[in-house]
Amino acid sequence: MTLDDLKPVGEAAPAPNRPDEHWWIRTDEGMPLEPACVTFEGDTPAKVQLIGDDSWGGKPVEDFQWSHTDEDGTTTVHSSLELVERIPPPGHAADIETLWQELRSATDTIARQGEILTEVVNALKGPPPEGTQWSHDDAGELARKAKRKLERTLRDVEISYAMEQGDDDTVDRLTRQAIEALEA
């Protein structure tokens, strides 16, 4: 047999389609996640069926895309569809429940920390005007200023006490520290 005797082989069979999968998807930035069934062509998402949507067969992925062409002729395709996380198949409900509990706990912690931060800012700035809330952006600087003011007050009290006691060495030391703190 020679190379001339070999006949070309037909094209390779296309890759089999991935089975449908359930995913948490985002269809618009800033919107909450939604559960959906995703159909694949090969390994590429082809259609999306939102859970609870009564349309038959889902929407093609292209319906979530748009493109524009730059002056240099470059075409850019954008998508408002984001496959965020695969929903585990049946039998993994315990895993999901554990994740939900962790999420709830983290959310509760974040909410409580926000409440504490609001209380701290209100203590440092005073009550906010009716129907408003203070920004937390400057909370760190407010706390540092309050700490410096408290340190100055304590030093002043110590100096006054040392003066009453006639302790000139302590008065001199504390006065130098106060001057150094002001220069820093």
Task: Report on the architecture of this protein.
With 184 residues, this protein is of the alpha+beta class. Among the domains are: 21-86, no CATH class; 139-183. It is 41% helix and 21% strand. It has three helices and seven strands. It has helices at 93-125, 139-165, 168-183, and strands spanning 21-26, 34-41, 44-50, 59-60, 65-69, 75-79, 82-86. The chain has a five-stranded antiparallel beta sheet with strand order 4-3-2-1-7, with no helix packed on it. A two-stranded antiparallel ribbon has the order 5-6. Strand 3 and strand 4 form a beta hairpin. Helix 1 packs across helix 2 and helix 2 (139-165) runs antiparallel to helix 3. The longest helix is centred in the middle third of the chain and has 33 residues, at 93-125.
Helix content: 40-55%
Strand order of the largest sheet: 4-3-2-1-7
Content-based structural category? alpha+beta
Average of pLDDT: 83
| Largest beta-sheet characterization | 5 strands, antiparallel
Instruction: Characterize the overall form.
Output: elongated
The number of helices is: 3
Rg, Å, rounded: 33 Å
- Succession of helices and strands: EEEEEEEHHH
Number of strands: 7
Sequence stretches where pLDDT stays below 50 over 5 or more residues? none
Roughly how many Å apart are the termini? 92 Å
Range of strand content: 15-25%
